[in-house]
Write a structure and sequence with these properties.
Blueprint lengths: L7 H11 L3 H32 L10 H18 L4 H16 L5 H21 L1 H11 L4 E2 L12 E2 L5 H19 L9 H4 L10 H8 L1 H23 L3 H20 L6 H21 L1
Antiparallel strand pairs: 1-2
């Protein structure tokens, strides 16, 4: 680099680096060490416990389950530390479905993944204990009403903590339920909900409620029927087919996720998996016939 020239990347990174404190560095280092420790401990537990759960079988450190657990633990710990909470509830729901649908002799695989996720969540939350404690307090926080019994949008009469995403979602859901009776058959139009709510620049976050408001009673009803029909068609086939079971669990995951992070204009994964579930069920039925 010639004299007088500037390093563009360096100029951008220097102000960011200066904002780091010793506490940030120590917390990050502790988090990384704990994540590596739980990944190793969980994988070692799998190596030792598999022969007990499945007599006659052993698992090497190079085995696929070891690699899968290590990958799951590291990524789940990162998500937990980032305070992505409802994602783990959706994952727990999909793992519960997988446990029910899987043959009894293979359920220990699902249990191993679930145990790995549990350890990773503990590590991720422990690495940011103060933040985790604050978010736990948000769960039970009460939202005060400033104009009880008002005939306007519910959020307009609430004092919502804008740092509490749970309180925000509760207020948005109340707004959507308030609007549904007046939405009519065809609704108010895509992304129109944000014009009515007093919590600005926020969608409902619940895809079914958003569809009922913006696409009317018909749109909301059809979305529920689509989801129910896809689950109904694929459920019987998932008991005996691992690939179909994966599609079912994926669909359950995105449906649950749409109850907290849903937005119709961005629900591509939801609609793709609905179509995938119906398509897979049709192909399997034709194959059997």
């Amino acid at each position: 680099m010639l004299p007088g020239e500037h390093d563009g990347a360096g100029d951008l990174l220097r102000p960011l680096v200066r904002t780091f404190t010793r506490r940030d560095v120590s917390e990050t280092a502790a988090y990384v060490l704990l994540s590596l420790g739980v990944a190793f401990a969980g994988s070692l537990a799998a190596v030792l416990l598999v022969p007990l759960v499945q007599p006659g079988q052993a698992l090497s450190f190079g085995g696929r389950l070891f690699d899968t657990r290590r990958s799951v633990e590291m990524q789940a710990a990162i998500f937990a530390a980032a305070m992505v909470r409802f994602t783990f509830i959706a994952l727990a729901g999909s793992l519960f479905v997988a446990t029910i649908m899987t043959e009894s002799g293979k359920r220990w695989h699902v249990a191993a993944v679930g145990f790995a996720m549990f350890l990773a969540v503990i590590v991720g939350l422990s690495a940011r204990y103060n933040t985790a404690k604050l978010y736990a307090a948000y769960v039970v926080e009460q939202t005060a009403e400033t104009r009880a019994g008002s005939s306007e949008m519910p959020s307009c009469g609430l004092t919502v903590n804008t740092r509490n995403s749970i309180a925000i979602r509760q207020a948005l859901a109340r707004d959507a339920i308030f609007l549904i009776p007046t939405a009519g058959l065809f609704g108010t139009g895509l992304d129109s909900f944000m014009r009515f709510s007093c919590i600005k620049a926020h969608q409902v976050h619940i895809s079914i409620l958003q569809a009922a408001v913006e696409f009317g009673w018909l749109g909301g009803g059809f979305l529920v029927l689509l989801i129910a029909a896809a689950l109904y068609r694929i459920y019987p086939l998932a008991k005996n087919d691992g690939a179909v079971r994966f599609v079912l669990c994926s669909l359950v995951f995105v449906v649950l996720l749409s109850l907290a992070h849903g937005r119709t204009s961005r629900d591509g994964a939801l609609f793709a998996l609905i179509g995938c579930a119906v398509g897979v069920s049709d192909l399997r039925r034709r194959y059997v016939q």
